[in-house]
Amino acid sequence: MKVTKISVLFLSLFAILSCEKKATRGDADFSQFTQTFVEDLWKQYPGWATSVGYHKYDSILVIPDENTRQNEISFATRYLDSLKSFQFDSLSAIHKTEFLLIKNQLEGVSFYSKEFKSYEWDASGYNFGGTLFEITQNKETSKAQIINNLNRYLANVPKYYEVAKANLKNPTKEHTELAISQLAGTIDMLRNGEIAKLYKEEKADTTPLVNASKSIEGFIAHLTQIKSEMDAGKIKPKDFRIGKDLFAKKFDLEIASSYNAEQMYQNALNRKQSLTAEMHTIATRLWTKYLPNTPIEKDSLLLIKKVIDKVALQHCAREKFQSEIEREIPILTNFVNEKNLVTMDPTKPLVVRKEPEWMAGVAGASISSPGPYDKNGNTYYNVGSLAKYTPEAAESYLREYNNFTLQILNIHEAIPGHYVQLIHANKSPSLIQTLMQNGAFVEGWALYAERFMMEEGWDKNTSINPKEMSDEMWLMYYKFHLRGVCNTILDYSIHSLNMSKENALNLMMNEAFQEKSEAEGKWKRATLTQVQLCSYFTGFYEIYNFRKEVKEKMGDKFNLKEFNDKLLSFGAPPMKYIKEMFGK
What we know:
Blueprint: H1 27-44, H2 46-51, H3 66-83, H4 93-116, H5 129-135, H6 143-154, H7 157-167, H8 173-191, H9 194-201, H10 207-231, H11 244-254, H12 261-290, H13 300-311, H14 321-339, E1 350-354, E2 365-368, E3 379-383, H15 391-400, H16 405-413, H17 418-425, H18 431-435, H19 439-455, H20 470-497, H21 501-511, H22 516-528, H23 535-554, H24 560-568, H25 575-582
Parallel strand pairs: 1-3
Antiparallel strand pairs: 2-3
């Protein structure tokens, strides 16, 4: 999973030209428009600016009240009118894409404020731990100025949580529990973590940290009381399911695919069927190797599961999980370079780290990337800790991320997956495209990277996989890919078709061959997010099919590295926009 630093964009820009000139604005005007727009954007949304490395407004904590929401709607309305001043057909391919990206985000403002209303039910949305951490990452100023920015930011925390309490009219239990857990991590950052250490080093007055921590504790106490009343049956929590209509609208806005949500659900069902057939063929070949002297299983799903269960016993020790990830990264890098698959940039650091507490609880592994204003900053590969797992849960987790699937995870998250894609995105000539990255492209690229690595011979890379293990590598690759496919089925079924937990676990464990720990974690994630799980297969489906079209058209002239580099050169807009730009 990619940890996006991109919130829903509520963009702002005043119309520059008079009404008489509105019908004639073209390419040159649009370039000026975007420059003015970006600076105005950061004034309106300083937290998002901080997250991408723009630190001019680090000291501002926006109060999430009704006045702020009305301002956002007003801005969006005016700026949509501003976009009408441009002659779309006269714009260049890049500017057309920027136009569509801005328009799509602006059109979402009213939906999120008036229909989706997560500020009323998602308590985890009131956690600014990530922003606090990013404020400390400003390399262009002194530590004293960073502390000054933090002090001014933290001064607004009491008011922030007063408003948060008033906003939460109908919270879900799932988001309330997540908020309690993650906010404890934010407090720890203020008292013992990066921020506390910074104040101690500079001998700064820690009163702002103490006061902010007390305000967060007060909010946690408020949420804990709500949860207790939910548990006692005194309060009926809101259902975390958002329903078919909201899901379809959110899918269109966030995924921005050529397909709608229901179509991608059907595509995923079809892909699941074909993958199961592929896995059955491989598992049949492996049967006698892993279950000798055992009559072959007649039930195809059980046959696959029994072979996978045996193969999955090959995994690293619990205490070596993170170190094994660190060991594999340079091997992946060498393979990509030797096979000439995509351009790498060795100057951009990749740091494997334990997942910070303030972001834990949604995904077990993720990438946090620097924004376009901090292109030389570290990319962090966040690895979930197994320290709090019971021996049984840890063993289940390690079977899920066994010696083979851990490789696919590293391809997905790091090389040549998210890490490589995001480095390329920061080099895009279009700041708009870099800032407004499409989640389906980002996750789709990672699944596509898994696929082309296998196609180019990763299964036979003897520095990790013994020669006789190619079938095992392909079986586990298909298992991992099936997980991405089932993400779409799961997401759509839970939120649009009211799928129960029992049926969801059955899908994941008995039809997608996931360990119980993985299935339980994915269920939790599906209760905390909506639509995001659809991004994986949707993005892969569009990227892979587009590559097939290009290969058929180019024939022997097709070059994989050239295709991959060009695909990544546009930033990360929706694939339907890339298709329009690709041949231009």
